[in-house]
Amino acid sequence: MSHRDVTRTKLAGDALYIAWRMNPADADSAGTAKNRLAQGEGRHLYRLRSWVIVNGEGHALLAPAASLEQIAGAVSDDAEEVVASRWIAGRRECAEVAREIELTPVALGLTDRPEQWPYSSAAMK
Hints:
Radius of gyration: 14 Å
Strand order of the largest sheet: 2-3-1-4
Order of helices and strands: EHEEHEH
CATH superfamily: Transposase IS200-like
Helix content: 25-40%
Shape: globular
CATH topology: Alpha-Beta Plaits
Number of domains: 1
CATH class: Alpha Beta
CATH architecture: 2-Layer Sandwich
């Protein structure tokens, strides 16, 4: 995976979508990932817009303030576990992606409403 610098002049709606894998054998991997996301935001590597941790995967929409390599290192011990990243342009598309991320547990039949999933930005609202 190419770790290019994601810091650039951002339009009002631009964001970075990132997905990564976690160790599914780790019983507390979701809690660990949730803490890592908060720590990365606290280190000002990004501003979280929307995120979910489910079934050994993390998905986040964020406003980056650092390189993809730094962001990948914040969310995972192994930067190679980052399996997807792409720019999301425009407010409407950002809102759609954010909603899709938060609806993941509902789509998987794990909850009835997004805010019921404890490892999601929807639960924090």
